[in-house]
Amino acid sequence: MKRILVTGGAGYIGSHTTLELLDAGYDVVVVDNLSRGHRSAVEPARLREVDILDTPSLVRVMQEKPVDAVIHFAAYIAVGESMQNPGLYFRNNVSGSISLLTAMQEAGVRNIVFSSTAAVYGMPTVVPIPETLPYAPLSVYGETKVMIEKVLAWFGQTHGLRSVCLRYFNASGADPAARTGEDHEPETHLIPLLFRAIETGKPATLFGQDYPTPDGSCIRDYIHVSDLARAHIGAVEWLLKGGESRHFNVGTGAGYSVREVVDAVARVVGKPVPHTWGPRREGDPALLVADSSSLRNELGWVPQDSALDRIVETAWRWYHR
Ligand code: UDP
Predict the structure, then answer these.
(1) Which range marks the domain in which residue 205 is found?
(2) 197 and 81 in one domain?
(3) What pLDDT, on the 0 to 100 scale, is given for residue 101?
(4) Rounded to the nearest 5 degrees, what angle is found at the Cα of 274, between the Cα atoms of 171 and 118?
(5) Which residue's CA lies nearest to atom 7 of ligand 1?
(6) How confident is the model at residue 283, as a pLDDT?
(7) Global pTM?
(8) Are 103 and 194 contained in the same domain?
């Protein structure tokens, strides 16, 4: 049985991917310091409560039993926070990743799937966005991901490390069986904030209705977290079969506007969503939609759960559990 080390496995995408790996017959060990993740999201026997910056402890986890590949989620994810506290982001996301790669080198682990982001593209000049667009991040968060994509390429060149960087678009939804779901504090993502607005009656603020899109609100490529998790399984299989290092967008190629998401939430929950329209949020591109043809053609990935109502319905089931 192949053994996969998942860093950040107590977080949102990490906990879904851990479940998919187990369902697919992999053995999984999770490294998480629980600074943002949730203890309840991981089976206790699989969890190693280790900080990503603690290289010797990472080596020890990799030496418990041989690890065939690492999936590296452990990172901070809030764009606004990264601009207020860049040191925190460079330390955890960049130094933390370098600590992990150093440990992998020492333990002889040569395959890694890395959580990257559409934020590496900044304001894209071509939509749907192909992987070939140049790096142009607009935030410290995006820059930390660009930096590690580059570090991975250098570890590949110098030490034969093989990597797949998955550039996520808008991860959303929850495990259809509600075994895990999205639970950030503070929450910054649209769909859970719309649920909160319904629950509390306090209106959600929607950022900008003057964009050059058909209804004036921003368009995003919402990808169900279980489809995203399955892309990681495909990436691990690719590496274990000897595939070369790659970058893949993970999105559906379909975009929904903020207005359409609000309508979907009202439809699925069966209640109106209290909301007000505010100004644009700084750094938000009008349109972010993935060209995911490489992922589909090369890894045979097909989204199964990413229809908007399915995303909202699974997210609501988890939220309301
Ligand atoms: N958004 C919004 N109000 C909020 C949070 C998000 O209008 O309180 C909008 C945001 O401007 C973007 C979309 O919802 O167009 C998705 O934002 P989110 O923060 O969920 O993901 P991001 O696109 O930043 O990765």
Answers:
(1) 190-220+253-319
(2) no
(3) 98
(4) 20
(5) 206
(6) 87
(7) 0.98
(8) no
